[in-house]
Design a protein that fits this description.
By secondary structure, the protein is of the alpha/beta class. It has helices spanning 18-39, 44-56, 62-71, 77-92, 104-113, 126-134, 159-169, 183-191, 218-225, and strands at 6-9, 117-121, 147-149, 176-180, 195-199, 214-215.
């Protein structure tokens, strides 16, 4: 197996605990939404998101539509954009800090130092992705990340999205390794020609699908796919 030239990481369940998004980020955005919209109603970026929301949910006030999408955890682009804006304020105010599993940052740094391009692909907005990695518990990792993709690139369960990411990275899909905890996302990436691996984190309760290679940690991924493998960090 040829070691990948590019590694693309999902976030929730892969680099970060599912509970962080569910128990920290989502409630924070829900609680702060109304106040944020009142305070930033004249912001052009916010106004653009509200206009997009009106187009997708005619007959509803934008705030009502956004709250409904939040309650149903819908992967709707304007919702992800507004959540990213709310989270940005929280991160910059110090009310939020991005969670990463302890094994993630050492591997990302080692892979980047070896010349491997690192990208993030998540249903959360690019804005939210950058905030999490800029304000992570392991420090600012954005300098070693070469690209970010969200639902604007395409749905995570469609092969065309992964073909677009490979093209953006300037490599053939076979030179890319995609890491995710979701088997259907891995199915799509594999259909696009990428190398894939399922992250099976015991703390998140992930179950291996049996359809793809599976690893419990990033160092295990490194050893399996020929990437630099730092020593395992202590648990915590």
């Amino acid at each position: 197996m040829t070691p990948p030239k590019v590694v693309v990481c999902d976030i929730e369940g892969t680099t970060s605990a599912i509970a962080f998004v569910k128990d920290s980020l989502f409630p924070f955005a829900e609680q702060a939404l109304d106040g944020f919209l009142r305070a930033r109603a004249d912001d052009p970026a916010v106004a653009a998101v509200l206009e997009e929301t009106r187009g997708l949910a005619p007959g509803l006030e934008p705030a009502e539509a956004l709250r409904g999408w939040m309650a149903r955890d819908e992967k709707v682009t304007p919702l992800k954009a507004i959540q990213g804006m709310v989270w940005r304020q929280g991160f910059e105010d110090g009310a939020l800090h991005g969670h990463l599993w302890p094994d993630v940052a050492p591997c990302l740094r080692a892979w980047a130092a070896a010349g491997v391009k690192l990208r993030i692909y998540s249903s959360g907005s690019v804005e939210a992705q950058k905030l999490l990695f800029r304000h992570s518990a392991a420090g600012d990792l954005t300098p070693i990340l070469s690209g970010f993709d969200d639902t604007r690139t395409g749905p995570k369960r469609e092969a065309a999205s992964y073909q677009a990411i490979a093209a953006s990275a300037g490599v053939e899909p076979g030179a890319v390794l995609f890491l995710s905890d979701v088997a259907e996302e891995l199915d799509a990436a594999a259909a696009a020609g990428m190398q894939v691996c399922q992250l099976v984190r015991a703390a998140d309760g992930t179950v291996a699908s049996g359809r793809h290679p599976a690893c419990a940690t990033f160092p295990e991924v490194a050893r399996r796919f020929g990437l630099p493998a730092p020593d395992e960090p202590p648990p915590g």
